[in-house]
Amino acid sequence: MVGVVGIAFPKFRLVSTLGAYQDLAKDGLWETTMTTKRMGLSGKPETAAEMAARFDDLHPPYNEMMAMTESNRCLYCYDAPCTTACPTSIDIPAFIRKISTGNPNGAAKTILEENILGGTCARVCPTETLCEQACVCNELEGGPVPIGRLQRYAVDHFMEADKPHPFGRKPSSGKTVAVVGAGPAGLACAHRLAMLGHDAVVFEAKAKAGGLNEYGLAAYKMTNDFAQKEVDFLLEIGGITIQYEQRLGDNLLLADLSRDYDAVFIGIGLGDVNDLGLEGEDKDGIHSAIDFIEEIRQAPDKRDVAVGDNVIVIGGGNTAIDAAVQAKRLGAGEVTLVYRRGAEQMGATDFEQDLAKLNDVIVRYWSMPSGIKGNGKVESMVFEKAELDGGKLMGTGETYEVKADMVLKAVGQKLLPSGLDGIELNRGKLVLDEKFQTTMGGVFAGGDAVASGEDLTVQAVEDGKQAAHAIDQYLSGM
Ligand code: SF4
Question: Ranges for the FAD/NAD(P)-binding domain (predicted)?
Fold first, then answer.
């Protein structure tokens, strides 16, 4: 089977995608892998076509034969553990069976009725730690059923078929809900509200909808303007309008929304980034990884994006990997990703960590940033080696220096509290009751901005969907 579709074992998936795989011996503190020669990432590409090739689809889509072959491996488990592991509870065996019987459009409808952003989630979900980790086929030769790629096959098939929107709307309730933020939570909430017969007006701070799907994910994960195509598809249901460049606490006030609409949903995500807390952090060349990723996503020709020769990325999550890999693909000479703990503790999945190494990123573990050098512009950073002492991370006193003309910070994001006066926060996130309502009556929330939320696109979609049902109940009692 590996010879036919090249995807059976998890490790072999990287072979099929990237053309090479090498077991990456871990030697504790330091880890350097792959040569630029092997991945062909030396220097900046000269032509637009060469650069575009570096940002091509990370997981090329399945064709019909691949989808049929892989879908036929599913055992259609009763009480399927993959469905239990999916935050949006997609009936995975049902959609896979529809693919295997030649009904990909039916499969897409099964997916989309639980997750209207199933196309993006199929591309960016850490499936290896969610549905595919739970798949019983992990115990069998061939490994887990590639649920994410099958999901993408079905949803892409439906969207490319140019069929009518798969969901209708209940009769109009006459109610209108203000949705703040056109990211995954806000869009999912607005779509479900529309299905339930309500209208939604979405207020988005930026010039485009999609949130992280449009601005915050590596370009090779979201090719061909998919985020905007998905927004267009979602809006086909009707009853949803989007107003752009409307920022909460700036030209948009919660008090006005509460007064003018029947309910409010806040899905603003985390709009601010954490600092390193070091002196000299304002030097030229030091940027947020989120801003860097956004610039790449919005650049029609990636050659226009400035990248350093010696880039340091600080952090251990998928954002850090997205920034590091893209810096290398843009043509940086050396990219060093520095994380204060070990590989096991990284927020980035094993797949993402391997991807960084396959793209010639040098990974340095157990290292805490302790100084920034440079006169006006960053020239190097100093790191202190770290270790666990009684479970607590401590510096060892031993330091080393890494040359840098660009530093990308990916040490977490936080809520911008602007415009949220009157709503209780806990540890910088919105507090909700069990019905997704904040401490302000009639104001609901979901996604990364809430206290219990996991920072996953799929969780944001589920929050938005569930909050829409809670708002529906709230409106029916008005
Ligand atoms: S756990 Fe695996 S084999 Fe079972 S239904 Fe889910 S995808 Fe199919």
Answer: 176-464
Q: Which of 7, 145, 149, 151 to mutate to test the pocket of ligand 1 (most atoms within 8 A of CB)?
A: 145
Question: What is the spatial distance between Cα 347 and Cα 369, in angstroms, rounded to a whole number?
Answer: 18
Which domains, ranges and CATH numbers included, belong to the chain?
60-166 (1.10.1060.10), 176-266+415-476 (3.50.50.60), 273-413 (3.50.50.60)
Q: Cβ–Cβ contacts within 10 Å for residue 284, how many?
A: 12
Task: Please work out whether the CB of residue 140 comes within 6 Å of at least one atom of ligand 1.
Answer: no
Strand partners, 203: 180, 243
pLDDT of 29-38, one tens digit each? Answer: 333 333 333 4
Of the CA atoms within 13 Å of residue 194, those in its CB half-sphere come to 24
Taking the C-alpha atoms of 69, 71, 77 and 82 in order, what is their torsion angle to the nearest 10 degrees?
A: 130
Q: Which of 4-8, 151-155, 285-289, 390-394 bottoms out in mean pLDDT, i.e. has the lowest?
A: 4-8
**Protein residue with least CA distance to atom 4, ligand 1:** 77
pLDDT value at residue 267: 96
Provide mean pLDDT across the span 220-240: 97
Q: Percentages helix, strand, coil for the chain, rounded to the nearest 5?
A: 40, 20, 45
Q: How confident is the model at residue 453 (pLDDT cuts 50, 70, 90)?
A: low
Q: Return the structure tokens found at 327.
A: 């810096």
Q: Which atom of ligand 1 is nearest to 83's Cα?
A: 6
